[in-house]
Design brief:
The protein is mainly α and 267 residues long. The protein has one domain. The protein is built from 10 helices and no strands. Helix 2 runs parallel beside helix 7.
Length: 267
């Protein structure tokens, strides 16, 4: 064995790492998110001494709902990336297809897969753990709709990121649900967060959805009217994501970026 050759391989990957932000961020991002998320979960579990709060049930319900959200978001982004990976992206836009039709198609492709995932999650949680979320009626439906709309919005935003910066930017897509989780209070109430994190959480629709979920599980009645702000905020995120995608699409068309779409360059 020649140490210099092994060092050459190591040096090659170090150059690749230093030359791409999308490769550097995952080095520390995952461990940072895990530490923050589980740190706040530990603080919450340590502080819980409330009567009638079943922490285990609340955590399981949060896993079900957050899993549904992740499936919705990745359903949109994966449909877009399939076109990128197959080198079919440019071919799609040679057809008489409007950008609005394309975005709508991406969203609809996520509907079926996310509904299948939701059905499996609800079945398993009911069968294995006797957790039946559907018994909470319209309130839980509004909660899931909020997560669905926001998931579609983030999926479109993820596609926008890849469209602008190229396929290497897909590395920024996968951690998005994990990065958001500490801010939206998936597994704990927002009240235990620092003020600056709480302010960010209030701008994100899932934070309201999970506050309502914990209220439902403790027997508090949640009216449909109280879910409207979260639904409205999710709809605003969805509209903004669609407009952003259209704007970036026009930019890459005018600048010629779409013609030199490759996995080797981030411009």
């Amino acid at each position: 064995m020649h140490p210099s050759r092994a060092f050459a391989i190591t040096l090659r990957h170090l150059y690749l790492l230093m030359g791409s932000v999308s490769r550097i961020v995952p080095v520390f991002a995952w461990v940072t998110v895990d530490m923050v998320l589980w740190g706040f979960i530990t603080r919450y579990l340590h502080s819980v001494s409330l009567q009638g709060v079943n922490v285990g049930t609340a955590l399981l319900a949060a896993v079900v709902c957050w899993g549904f959200f992740g499936r919705v978001m990745h359903g949109v982004s994966m449909a877009f990336l399939e076109d990128v990976w197959s080198r079919n992206f440019l071919n799609i836009f040679t057809a008489p297809l409007s950008i609005t039709e394309y975005i709508t198609g991406l969203a609809l492709s996520s509907v079926l897969t996310s509904l299948i995932a939701l059905g499996v999650l609800l079945f398993l949680s009911s069968w294995l753990f006797e957790l039946s979320l559907l018994t909470h009626g319209p309130a839980i439906a509004a909660l899931l709709l909020t997560l669905f709309l926001f998931g579609i919005a983030l999926g479109i935003a993820s596609c926008t990121l890849v469209l602008r910066f190229g396929p290497p930017a897909e590395w920024f897509i996968w951690p998005i649900p994990a990065v958001l989780a500490p801010f939206v209070g998936v597994f704990y109430p927002l009240s235990i967060l620092p003020d600056w994190m709480r302010m960010i959480g209030r701008c994100l629709p899932p934070s309201y959805a999970f506050e309502n979920l914990r209220a439902l599980l403790t027997g508090v009645e949640v009216s449909l009217v109280s879910t409207l702000p979260a639904l409205g905020l999710a709809a605003l995120w969805l509209i903004s994501a669609g407009l952003l995608f259209c704007g970036v699409y026009r930019y890459v068309m005018r600048s010629g970026l779409i013609a030199r779409y490759s996995a080797e360059h981030i411009t």
